[in-house]
């Protein structure tokens, strides 16, 4: 494990103001990491950083100039958690090219941008963790760009793993099904979901795995029945639709 001179590992978390990114920041800070959160919008990012005890920098993870300039302020990166992303887009027949581009850019271009900016600061013992989605394996109708971007992320991460193993750098993918965060609130039906803390604990645990072990991917899904199952999440959009249907019935 690579550490700073005082033994502290430096973790950068993209999407640091989001549900999963902030939970990762909190978990890692709690484990003694020096944490840097990144996102584009300052108020939410500053609040998240204050809340978890992290530093932050503003950067668009899909822009080489924006992200490159921001990360240049660091002297090393020991753990890069890429959790920035968007659940935008719709059915192929309804989608504009711009919607497609926005989703691909935020979710897939960003993989390349983040890696290319971070690699010069990473050495043996460092690690990338990509936060993907079950849509990478089970594409979602109505989420064509999102599904393609996450399948692309997984392929990119595996190719990267085969490129940087010779440098002693590890690459892991965490692939959750639904996670209870703001991103889920636009989904029009209720579902079982894991929590952002479940994902964060997995990310932090991955960084304890021996560098000699190749662990390509961990998939996380909520248990849907039996005593361990949590209550299903009812997203805001599902509540809105139920209210509309009720009004139409009256
Ligand atoms: N929630 C789920 O059900 C779920 C399930 C599976 C996988 N995931 C994946 O987990 C990741 C995090 O999701 P979440 O639920 O935490 O989402 P979230 O709460 O909506 O947060 C998204 C984060 O990404 C940042 N972001 C978006 N585009 C960005 C860009 N171009 N550059 C930099 N930052 C950007 C946002 O901040 P700014 O907008 O300020 O930049 C925010 O911090 C995503 O990749 C998502 O696909 C989520």
What would you note in describing this structure?
This is Oxidoreductase. InterPro entries: KR_dom (IPR057326), NAD(P)-bd_dom_sf (IPR036291), Sc_DH/Rdtase_CS (IPR020904), SDR_DHRS6-like (IPR051122), SDR_fam (IPR002347). GO terms for molecular function: oxidoreductase activity. Residues 9-182 form the Ketoreductase domain. This protein has helices spanning 19-30, 42-52, 64-71, 97-118, 144-164, 196-206, 236-249, and strands spanning 10-14, 34-39, 55-58, 79-82, 127-131, 170-176, 179-180, 194-195, 217-220. With 250 residues, it is of the alpha/beta class. The protein has one domain (10-249): NAD(P)-binding Rossmann-like Domain (Rossmann fold), CATH 3.40.50.720. Strand 1, helix 1 and strand 2 (34-39) form a beta-alpha-beta unit. Helix 1 (19-30) runs parallel beside helix 2 and helix 3 packs parallel to helix 4. It starts with 9 loop residues before the first strand and ends with a helix. The mean pLDDT is 95. The chain binds NADP nicotinamide-adenine-dinucleotide phosphate (NAP). NADP nicotinamide-adenine-dinucleotide phosphate (NAP) is lined by residues 14-21, 39-41, 44, 60-62, 83-87, 106, 110, 131, 133, 176, 178-179, 181-184. NADP nicotinamide-adenine-dinucleotide phosphate binds at residues 14-21, 39-41, 44, 60-62, 83-87, 106, 110, 131, 133, 176, 178-179, 181-184.
